[in-house]
Amino acid sequence: MSNNFFTGGIPISIGDMISLQLLDLSNNKLSGGIPRHLPMGLALFDVSNNQLFGDIPSSMENMSHLVTLDLSNNTLFGGTPRWMGKMPYLQELLMVNNHFEGPIPMEFCKFNGSLQFLDLSANNISGSLVTLDLSNNQLTGNIPNWIGSLSALVYLLLNNNNFEGRIPVDLCKLLRLRLIDVSNNNLSGTIPFCLLNTILDDSSHAYDSRSFSADVPIEFTMKNKSYSYKGRVRSYLSGIDLSCNKLTGEIPLQLQNFRDIVVLNFSHNSLIGPIPPTLSELSQIESLDLSHNRLRSKIPSNL
């Protein structure tokens, strides 16, 4: 029923169609709210590009068979429901261009391996999400630009997925970041020089040490071994791991901004050019890996 000129509200009687599995009402002029009573067996629910208004009904939590949920381009508002992060079969979740606000629930950091596409862009999402860990999944496509709106983010782990395309410059907005791990993906293009202007300073360390999430362990690889960090030890960790991708170009010279960085891994890419002498200014570095690239210069004598 998509791509018509239907107006008015979504009929409540649709909820009585208990065998319905696919409901596509996109690209119409429907108004009003999303009905509280919908078929529980729906695998696809698409109401994008309408004029719907209101919040997301809590009754949708029981639609456990959902594979695709598209609410994009409406005037929906309210918080992002926690139950969305618990949907067992959800592969596509699109909520683009609405008025959703508040933080992204912690449950979104624990999506099961079925999720393939997530887009929350063009909303008013904010809040105090400190850790976003989507590592070790099968996520594809580009790294979402909306991650750059998570202003309180300290730890970003997207490693061991199938992300492709460039590293988005929107990540440069995350001024509290202390750890970025996008290793073992299919990322290409150059390393954004602005990423190396990200502030890895004491304010983010103090912020994380006060956070309730500091006791939640995160996994990070150092010196070819994976370690689990939590509590006060976690709050002192800082690093960038871009290894095992398809990155090209030269290593940016702005590395001296990372005076407190502990781990830096750009290995297994196609980087070219000289090894920046500014690496010698990384006074706290414990693990530096630039191997398996196409770097041509000698190792700077002051390293």
From TrEMBL:
Q: How does it sit in the membrane?
A: Single-pass type I membrane protein
Can you say where in the cell this protein is located? Membrane
Question: A cellular component term (GO) from this record?
Answer: membrane
**Matching InterPro entries:** Leu-rich_rpt, LRR_dom_sf, RLP_Defense_Trigger
Q: Which UniProt keywords apply?
A: Glycoprotein, Leucine-rich repeat, Membrane, Receptor, Repeat, Signal, Transmembrane, Transmembrane helix
Primary localization class, coarse: membrane
Q: Which family does it belong to?
A: Belongs to the RLP family.
PANTHER family found in the cross-reference section: RECEPTOR-LIKE PROTEIN 12, RECEPTOR-LIKE PROTEIN 14
Stated name of the protein: Uncharacterized protein
- The species is Gossypium harknessii
* Species classification: Eukaryota, Viridiplantae, Streptophyta, Embryophyta, Tracheophyta
